[in-house]
Amino acid sequence: MATVGQACLILALLTCVYGIVASLYGARAGRRDWVDSGRRAVYALAFLAIVSFAILVSAFLRSDFHYEVVATHSSTTTPAFYRAAAAWSSQEGSLLLWVLLLSLWSSVVLFLVRRHLRDVAPYATAVLLGFGAFFTGLLVFAATPFKTMAVAPPEGTGLDPLLRHPSMMIHPPMLYSGYTLWAIPFAFAVGALIVRRVDADWIRATRRFALAAWCFLGIGILLGARWSYAELGWGGYWAWDPVENASLLPWLTGTAFIHSVMVQEKRGMLKVWNVSLVLATGTLAVLGTFLVRSGILDSIHAFGASTLGAPFVILIGLMIAGGIYLVVSRRALLASEHKLDSLLSRESAFLGNNLVLVGLAFVVFWGTFFPLISEAVTGTKAAVGPPWFNRYTVPLALVLVLLSGIGPVIAWRRATWANARRNLLAPTAAALAVLAALLAFGVTKSATSLAMFVFAAFTVAVVVQEFARGVAARRAMAREGPLRALVSLVQRNRRRYGGYTVHLGMAVLFVGVAASTAFQHARDVRLTPGTTATVGGYQVKYVRATARPVYRGERLERVALGAVLDVRKDGRHVTTLRTERGYYPSAAPFASGSLIRGIFDGDATSEVGMKAGLTRDLWTAIQPDPEYLNKVIDATAAKTAGKPPAQQAQAVGRLLSVYRQGAFPAQFRIISSPLVSWIWLGGIIVFAGGLIALWPAPDAARRRVTAGYAARVARELGRA
Amino acid sequence: MDPSRKRRIRLVVALSAAVILAGALAYTSFSASSAAVSPSRLLASADTGHSYQLTGKVVDGSISRHGDATLFRVRDRNGSASVPVRYVGAVPDPFRDGREVIVTVRKRGATFVGEKDSLVTKCPSKFTDKPTSKT
User: Fold this and answer.
1) Which of A275, A543, A624, A689 is the most exposed place for a label (fewest CB within 10 A)?
2) CATH second-level architecture of B34-121?
3) Would the ipTM clear 0.90, i.e. be above it?
């Protein structure tokens, strides 16, 4: 099957090349049949990518270690659920996932516009197939997932234990969906610029794809943060790591684009800005994919040492140079149809929001690439840390949240002060009430957090006010009940109320970030069974040690050493936390002659103990003290070295029993953090809002059906 | 005022503000950064109290505990020159002998003291060029 997979990839590459030639020739020569053939090449690419991907996933599910990529990224002890995810934990598999998603989304958009944008679509097809050719080229020539070994090893290396988390199953597909979906507005913008058709048609045709890209990328980023919080043993969700930042960059510029296109659609303004934003977002999406693989920046994710850097640099260089050329050469066509009438207008609010978002993107870009900038300027690589990022991003985030409250209630063109006062009075009063309540409760530790709570309250109040007004108007007009009025209000204005819901979710999310950052209590403590530590007013007692082997079928998946912690506040029991550290045996646990060495020399990962709540999370992770543990391991290994496997397995059992009953010290990180759940809750609200905005309105669907029916009738009449 | 003149003034003000902000950003990034150095460079020249981003590999058998602190040595990626590091706090899950680490340190006497929560360990099994053994 590996041969079939490889053949599919080669065919996919040839298909891309053919499709590019057919689309460009069809467009230049005015040959519709060639253009259609170019579009069908995208469908063929999707089919070939599906077959290749299915072959790869099937190899992972079967644990077919003839495939080198399976042997180095999976094992029989990797749970089936994670074996499928292991397919995209490899360089090769992740590139194939990129091609698969790109081809699927491209097929959908080209199918939907097959009868519209006839001048723009062929060039967009060529651009999309250009991306396809680039990635399938990498898969064929540099990183094939179908490389096989003549003799399969008896066992695979296994999926990195850190990746065995449900978030990791959907985080990469979400992130890659975001990246690949951004290729669609990018391709149509290029097409529109090439044929000099720079009205808002290409924006309308790809609006849902831009929204979906934004939504998926955002959820992908949030899932990564959730994984970091729940799986890594440090208790944080964002570290300003280059790879994290790389995914945030296109999301920030994409957010700016989603807002500013509304100004172009409504008033024919900001055309240069919009095409520049979408070209930058598409380029940053590829840059994000590249950064993960280049090794040019030091990152915790450390996917470096790859040979794919040069091709990516060439692609990104082409995207930047081509984008600049197209915008500069078409600047006369991109002139605004109107001027900004007033600073007190929705256009101004959107412009402000755009400047803040692009400012944020610039800060993140500068900080992320600072090691390269510094090396170029001073000859020494230097890096900036989280405090530097926070210094700039926190005030910008505050302005952003405030603008997300002001923007929706300011009128287009020119708002009057009376109108602004009417719309902003109640939200301002609500924000001031929240400020008074927070001050009364003594929440004064962090001025920026306080400002964030107040601004978020303002935004939430604006959203509630807008929903309330809409429902009231609907009830008055249609005489519907409140719930029915709310549903029909949202159904009839999905984009608007979906957007409001997104703003609501972002406000909730930012409150969670501000509270959990400023009011967190964290301690690293060394405890032995029976001892207690106090963290943020909670008394945390190490009750007893736990130790257990975890089997997958008949094979040992890991050995888990852990602890049971009793958490009390003012003497009252709050919760019991259980945390473990899992030791995953190396692929050949008896290679050193000692099973116990094979187990403890393998990978280790924390199983976090957490009590998550709406108001507060209690979080802990354990690291058994290696000094004491190693003594027991060394002694056991010395006694059992070279003994039969059964005896060595018994020795492991004895060691676990000794650990359970002994008073081994362990290092704990214990965190009491308020409102972390609001971050995930805010993310869910944002996602829901995004889905509402994305979903086709029933009226539009009806219009399409009516238009289709009218076209059929016209055809029949024509034949008659 | 003439609307086009008004727009030009706004543009100049906005561009000036952007240039000033970008200048501040660039200036602070240079003053707040830590130089990324290898152990051999740190051995050759390290100022007491100055912070450095040390990158290298954990020397085999060098990890030990001393109270709340983890003591280990970091060596050059392709060499044997190494420096002692004292780190207080939880170490990342993949931290162990031979792993590539990045840690922000300051020189205190003969030892380099790691900044809390600055230790990151590269995960060797993902996207590397060649298959890596886990032992």
Assistant:
1) A543
2) Beta Barrel (2.40)
3) no
